[in-house]
Amino acid sequence: MGALLAKVGHVVTPHSHDSADKTDAALESSERGLRVLGVSFAVLVVTAVVQAVIVGVSGSVALLGDTLHNFADALTAVPLAIAFSLGRRAATRRFTYGYGRAEDLAGIAIVLVIAVSAGLAGYEAVKRLIDPQDVHALGWVAVAGVIGFAGNEWVARYRIRVGREIGSAALVADGLHARTDGFTSLAVLLGAGGAALGFPLADPLVGLLITAAICFVLRDAAREIYHRLMDAVDPALIDAAERILLAVPGVRHAGSIRLRWIGHALHAEVEILVDHDLSLVDAHAVAVEAEHRLIHDLPRLRAATVHIDPHDPTGADHHALLSTHR
Questions:
Q1: Rounded to an integer, what distance in angstroms lies between the CA atom of residue 271 and that of residue 294?
Q2: Bridge partners of 270?
Q3: What are phi and psi of 14, to 5 degrees?
Q4: Which of 122, 183, 196, 223 is deepest in the core (most CB within 10 A)?
Q5: pLDDT of residue 193 exceeding 50
Q6: Residues spanned by CATH 3.30.70.1350 within the chain?
Q7: pLDDT tens string 122-175
Q8: Does domain 20-229 correspond to CATH entry 1.20.1510.10?
Q9: pTM exceeds cut of 0.90
Q10: Exposed (0-12), middle (13-18) or buried (19+): which is 232, by Cβ within 10 Å?
Q11: Where are the beta strands (DSSP E) in the chain?
Q12: With the C-alpha atoms ordered 197, 202, 203, 207, is the resulting torsion angle positive or negative?
């Protein structure tokens, strides 16, 4: 009897699947994210410092643009690290969903940093076009371009791999950003080669190309952050959730399915229809099974709320009381 009352009591509360394992997994994801950011920050700072020294010796504006971009890319680790740290805090009565949204706010800061680096690189390139200057130590400039590519490509692979494993779109986007930086570093070689062949304007022209590349990265990063802020998800996730629900014994139909990202974890709110003549306990068991399968089969889903509706062959409207509020 006690077990029956416990099951019935659970029916009137949202079905949740937050367990110690889920919490531990979330904390481990944040730990890995922080570790990636720390290592990649150090690599990019060292890369940018080496390039900055060569900029001072050579006066290459193309290399300056690439150096500014690498410094900016290193600085994007700061807001992300703050966001990962905040995301580990437990939910409160005010922040009932926790602090995962801090990751999206960090994304806005990243977009602003990229925009500033594009502006500075473009300004210096135009300035050098108007007032051309000789570029010195072309061999070192070429070496700096190779160093920039190597450092960024290593960071890109590291961020993208871990970002996909922990489900952090911001970390993956930052990794793709680093990969683009690597190719812009190779463009510095073009500027050095042009200058070596007696075409001094090659350096500022490559600087403008690098600025354009930064602007494309800026567009993609801004679009990604916009989607997260607007609770956009990949439609394929909705299709997968529907297939999972329809495979649950007792589910006659899947109604509304809503997913949203909170930081690097998914949360779901779904409606299912079950036979109208099921007992309360049996209907609840179907809902629990649906929730269980969703969390285990849908990648990076941390919590789900399942609402049960009766599948009534008579066509009765069981939500008539709420019709005026829709």
A1: 12
A2: 257, 306
A3: -60, 140
A4: 122
A5: yes
A6: 234-325
A7: 877 787 778 776 667 778 888 888 888 888 889 888 888 888 887 776 777 778
A8: yes
A9: no
A10: middle
A11: 253-262, 265-275, 301-311
A12: negative
